[in-house]
Amino acid sequence: MEQEQAQRIFVQLVRPGEGTEDTRRLATRAELGEENWNLVQELAGESARLVVTGRNEATGEETVEVVHEALIREWQSLREWMERDRDFRTWQERLRVVMRQWEATNKKDRALLTGFPLDEAKDWLERRRADMSELERDFIKLSLTLREKEVKERKSQQQRITVARTTAICFGIVGVTLIILLNRQSIITVVITSNKKHLAKSDLLKNFYLPKADLSEANLEKANLSQADLTEANLSRANLQSAYLWKTFIPRANLLGADLSQANLSEADLTEANLSGANLKGANFVKNYMPRSNLLKANLSEANLSEANIDGADLSGADLKGAQLVKTFMPGVQLKDADLSQANLSEAYMDRADLSGANLQGAKNLNPDQVKRAKNWEKAKYDEDFSKKLGLKGSK
Questions:
Q1: Which of 43, 309, 334, 389 has its CA 20 to 30 A from that of 206?
Q2: CB proximity list for 339: less than 8 A, separation 6 or greater
Q3: What are φ and ψ of residue 209, in 5° steps?
Q4: pTM (predicted TM-score)
Q5: Looking at domain 2-101, which CATH architecture does it have?
Q6: At CB < 8 A and 24+ separation, what contacts does 262-267 make?
Q7: Closest CA to 28 of 112, 133, 120, 137
């Protein structure tokens, strides 16, 4: 137990170098936690003298740092701890920069984490909660709460817009009698779904609230569905070519075999959606949120998934040739037999992704450390030169 405490303390006293040597770092008592401070004092005592404690004159906070940077270079155990925790500590230092910026804005909501950085922080919080300070945990939780609040507000706004717009439509068709009934969601849904074959290039569904709507085989080519709520909707085999789905809310929807080629789904929410066999060629998924979605054998060739969150998604057998996966958050993703040839994986987060049988020949901006954090990486296909970098048997 004490050894684990010591490890947690010392890795916090080292600033991980990014292309440079690691250096010592001044940590506060709050960052290390009250439960570790007694051990800090022991390590600073006469019998150890491994750290030096002090106090920040401006804030009054108690501080600690390693006694000398030579300790970082010469202590084998500390070097091993840092190598094991390098990814986490590098991320944690970036988080602390963001927190300082947030504090400088008087803790304004606009300075909280959003998008990919928030998804990454949530993942680290789930895995390394004990290695974060209370302030860091609270900052992430506050960011998550704000995102949930914004989703609820958007949903409420969509409901108001849907009722108002459908009222206007029905007023021109059947008059006041039907307007009285418009508070019933079923009436609104019938009006839309009965015309689903004639919605191409339409702006009608923008901001609409249509959970569980049956839009199977609908013609929505080039339609504007931005910020609509289609939770659990049936869009199987729908034609959504070049459709505009910016910030559209589509969790748990059925898009089996749908055609979304060249569609814009940036910042849309496709959590747990079924996109198996869907045509997503050239689609824009920038900053899209689709954890645990089913993309089995989907066509994502030349699609842009930069900064998207596909945590835990199933892309087994998917076609990702030439796809942009820059800074894509993809831990635990199933990529069994997926084709990632010519894909750009710069800074993609692939921890625990399953690469069994995946084709990574010609993949761009891929590095060995990134690959080795995935599962079954040795069972994937690589260019000969990259195989050598990985130290795979049979590479010349």
A1: 309
A2: 318, 319, 320, 321, 358, 359
A3: -110, 100
A4: 0.64
A5: Orthogonal Bundle (1.10)
A6: 267/115
A7: 133
Q: Does residue 18 register a pLDDT over 90?
A: no
Side chain identity, residue 12: Q
Q: In angstroms, rounded to a whole number, what is the distance separating the alpha carbons of residues 200 and 207?
A: 16
Strand 62-66, strand 51-55: pairing? antiparallel
pLDDT at 59: 86
- What's the pLDDT tens digit per position in 289-340? 898 999 999 999 999 999 999 989 999 999 999 999 999 989 899 999 999 9
Can you say how many angstroms the Cα of residue 63 is from the centroid of all Cα atoms in its chain?
34
d(C-alpha 339, C-alpha 287), whole Å? 22
Q: State both tokens at 65.
A: 């740092």
Distance CA 347, CA 298 (A): 23
What is the chain's percent helix, strand, coil content, to nearest 5?
40, 15, 50
Residue ranges covered by each domain of the chain: 2-101
Mean pLDDT computed over 366-382: 93
Query: First and final CA of the chain: distance in angstroms?
Result: 46
